[in-house]
Write a structure and sequence with these properties.
- The structure holds 2 protein chains of 2 kinds.
- Chain A is mainly alpha-helical.
- Chain A has one domain: ABC transporter involved in vitamin B12 uptake, BtuC, CATH 1.10.3470.
- Chain A contains 14 helices and no strands.
- Chain A is globular, with a radius of gyration of 20 Å.
- The two termini of chain A are about 25 Å apart.
- The mean pLDDT of chain A is about 90.
- By secondary structure, chain B is an alpha/beta fold.
- Chain B has a single domain, classed as Rossmann fold (3-Layer(aba) Sandwich), CATH 3.40.50.
- Chain B is built from 9 helices and 12 strands.
- In chain B, helix 4 runs antiparallel to helix 5.
- Chain B is globular and about 60 Å long.
- The mean pLDDT of chain B is about 95.
- The chains are: A mainly alpha, B alpha/beta.
- Chains A and B meet through helix 9 and helix 10 of A and helix 2 and strand 6 of B.
Chain lengths: ~325, ~260
């Protein structure tokens, strides 16, 4: 019951966030004009602003925010570690190294898919490295090794980034730093489509794994005794959650805190049952990132604030408050 | 003739290829409806035997059988309906109520998205009642004492409505009341026909409650049989590398082991 209430509230919040993000921006459109465009009317300029600029951007925020929160919840269960987050397998480092390389070589402008393609490739390379190390001699996936090799592979890519940046020009360094703090400014219908193809089926698959994930969170041996095929579930959940994070990072850069904080906030409200936790985390992450992107666009207009800054500024105090309340 | 609940044939286990044998050609048979205790010093392979028997650790040679079928041939889900197992360690990483932990015992009976039915709720209530844990149901697991937590985990295993139970040292670090409560519960379960495979350190309690015992020594079977057959002072002394005397408990009449002071 608590779950349905929370679900309805989050869905309402998401719809509201979407409407707000269509309404506000560099040019404030009235609610009537936005609704006009959505019902198939409105001027050509209004239609362009709403349908080609703001809507894909808002939908990308929904997909990336939802995907990050969902993937963070899955990693926290699998690693049985409350500090786990979507980038834990070195994904952010790998993606950033790929992106920075393309920026430094001056290739980012030559084709629109170069930058996301390189970031996605870097993320996949990191995932493959970390998996390769963590699969032990008897072909089991060792969770502790996964965690450690993720951190080490991430550190290696950070060193690569530092090397590339130290040789790059000032303008490149600036665009690289901005990319690494995340932005949804590059959203197009094409990027929304690609991220949706990765995120939505993956989200359904992960939600279908909710019961095995409940069991994994209390330990692999017990999960096995309660009927879970531990090794296939681990591989599937890690692989799919990593792909979701990688698709998001390719088109939106590294956006911190969503994947860490949202699952915890939901857990504090509805508990640890993944059948509720996973779908509600997706909704909450989607609403949160949509609002964060809105704030990024309007807070210091006309300058756009990196979205990673906003997620940290909103997320951290909110989370600390929740934490205080739960301790009382 | 029906096959034993569990049996092994020349079961050997090593944890890494080329590593030492943790179990060395162990052949045992656990009769249906019996309380079968596995004894032995630290590192003698008791926990490994339970894990290998339940398919968590692959055999290096030989095989383990459940209900006459090789354990590797069982689907994990079917196995979880047949055996309720309680491992040595378990730690919940996120806040969880006792009720939701015990409800996990119903997962092997449910489809991936199928909600619990009245049948499932009844099984959970019955298991909680059985383990005197009904009043703990709404508590958070991380607020339980050691004894309460073990009772709740056994309740989860009973909620699986299994044919057999397998438990790895369920009473270590518990006080007398909790320890006796669990052993009485296991003996009653065995009397109702549930086969109980119990790994334990407590020689004297095993002597009182077990129908058959296995004594492991560095991965090998040192003795197997009834309590009277296995509890011989010279055998126990050589396995535990400590002098012991075996008398009989004046109250229960079960064999009673007393470790001696050397000299």
């Amino acid at each position: 019951m608590k779950g349905w209430g929370a679900g309805a509230a989050l869905l309402a919040a998401l719809v509201l966030a979407l409407l707000l993000s269509l309404r506000f921006g560099a040019e404030g459109l009235g609610t009537a004009r936005v609704l006009g465009v959505l019902t198939g009317e409105g001027s050509a300029t209004d239609r362009f602003i709403v349908l080609d600029l703001r809507l894909p951007r808002a939908l990308l925020a929904v997909l990336v925010g939802g995907g990050l929160a969902l993937s963070g919840a899955v990693f926290q269960a699998l690693l049985r570690n409350p500090l786990a987050e979507p980038y834990i397998l070195g994904i952010s480092g790998g993606a950033a190294a790929g992106a920075v390389l393309v920026l430094a070589l001056g290739l980012a402008g030559s084709a629109s898919w170069f930058l996301p393609g390189a970031a996605f490739g870097g993320a996949l390379l990191a995932i493959a490295l970390v998996f390769g190390v963590a699969v032990s001699a008897d072909r089991r996936l060792d969770v502790r090794v996964l965690l450690l090799s993720g951190v080490v592979v991430g550190a290696f890519f950070s060193a690569c980034i530092a090397l590339i940046l130290s040789l790059a020009e000032a303008a490149t360094v600036r665009s690289a730093v901005l990319w690494m703090m995340g932005s949804l400014a590059g959203a197009t219908w094409r990027s929304v489509g690609i991220v949706a193809v990765y995120t939505l089926p993956a989200a359904l698959l992960l939600i279908a794994l909710a019961r095995p994930l409940n069991l994994m969170a209390i330990g692999e041996e017990t999960a096995g005794y309660l009927g879970t095929d531990v090794e296939p579930v681990k591989r599937l959940a890690y692989g799919v959650a990593s792909f979701v994070a990688a698709a998001g990072v390719a088109f939106a850069g590294v956006i911190g805190f969503v994947g860490l904080i949202i699952p915890h906030a939901i857990r504090l409200v509805i508990g640890s049952d993944h059948r509720l936790l996973l779908p509600l985390s997706f909704l909450a992450g989607a609403a949160f990132l949509t609002l964060a992107d809105l704030a990024a666009r309007v807070a210091l207009r006309p300058v756009e604030v990196p979205i990673g800054v906003i997620t940290a500024f909103i997320g951290v105090p909110f989370f600390l408050l929740l934490l205080r309340r739960s301790l009382r | 003739m029906s096959s034993p609940a569990f049996h092994t044939k020349e079961l050997s286990v090593r944890y890494r290829p080329g590593g030492p044998l943790v179990l060395d050609r162990v052949s045992i048979a656990v009769p249906r409806g019996s309380l079968y205790a596995v004894l032995g010093p630290n590192g003698s392979g008791k926990s490994t035997l339970m894990k290998a028997l339940l398919g968590q650790v692959p055999p290096a040679r030989g095989a383990a059988f459940i209900d006459g079928r090789p354990v590797q041939a069982w689907k994990r889900r079917d196995l979880a309906r047949w055996v309720g197992a309680v491992s040595q360690h378990e730690e919940t990483s996120f806040p969880l109520t006792v009720r939701s932990l015990v409800e996990m015992g119903r997962y092997p009976h449910l489809g991936p998205l199928q909600p619990m039915g009245s049948r499932d709720h009844e099984a959970v209530e019955a298991a909680l009642t059985r383990c005197a844990a009904l009043d703990l149901a709404e508590r958070f697991v991380d607020t339980l004492s050691g004894g309460e937590f073990q009772r709740v985990r056994i309740a989860r295993a009973l909620a699986q409505e299994p044919v057999a139970l397998a438990l790895d040292e369920p009473t270590s670090s518990l006080d007398i009341r909790h320890e006796m409560g669990i052993l009485e519960l296991l003996r009653d379960s065995a009397r109702e026909g549930i086969t109980v495979f119990l790994v334990t350190h407590h020689l004297n309690l095993a002597a009182r409650y077990a129908d058959r015992v296995l004594l492991l020594d560095r991965g090998r079977v040192a003795a197997e049989g009834s309590v009277e057959e296995v509890y011989r002072a010279e055998v126990l002394a050589s396995v535990y590398e400590w002098p012991v005397a075996v008398a009989h408990d004046p109250l229960s009449a079960a064999p009673m082991v007393t470790p001696l002071s050397p000299r």
